[in-house]
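Schema walk-through. Below, the input block comes first and the output block second. Nothing else is stored per chain. Lengths vary across the set, and this one has 226 residues.
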Amino acid sequence: MLRQDTPRIDPEHEGSNDRDESTEAGSGTVDIQRELNRLEEMILDSPRIPFSRRTLIDEEQLLDQLDVVRLNLPAAFNQVEEIIRQKEEILLQAEQYAQEILEAAEQRASEILDEMGIVRQAKLEADRLRQQVQQDCERAREQTLSEIDHLRRQAQQEIEDMRRNAIAECEAIEKGADEYADRVLGNIEGQLSDMLRVIRNGRSQLHEDAGSPSPSPLPPPARGDY
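--- output ---
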């Protein structure tokens, strides 16, 4: 499902990406494999979290790249349909060519066999050849369509698998980033607690040295105040 929010534009790639995507989407010649390679490079080139196998990645940029692949999948399917249509046209032309050859052969055979008195046999043989050619053409057509349909289903399955893998990778990256941020905030919280403890001890020491009552302790900071 395409995102409904407005995509964020990266200033470094604003000119080139907009130009490439508009040209490719308009012409319907986007290389799906190349766009998937870009997606992989985007993940591999993202900065890594220190001391971990996690990677920080720009979610908007990743989703934009997924949109490019998703939006151009219909163009890839149209190319497959165009190939099928061209195959059918080629088969039709082959059938027409074979028909023309058979008709020419029948005409020539009729002219020769008329003189030999075996016109009927020639016609029977021509009919047999015509039927055989038609059967061969039909078998070839069915086999070609079956192979193309198999390739199309295989391509759809591979694209769906890559999409699921990319989404799973994004979710894993986001989860790792959240865990890292929580650990960093926890460390900061501990350091602030230690600093408050030192401040309380220092104030108590000052009041004991001055002979005045110890001040009321500072209330512990609420979580989120720092």
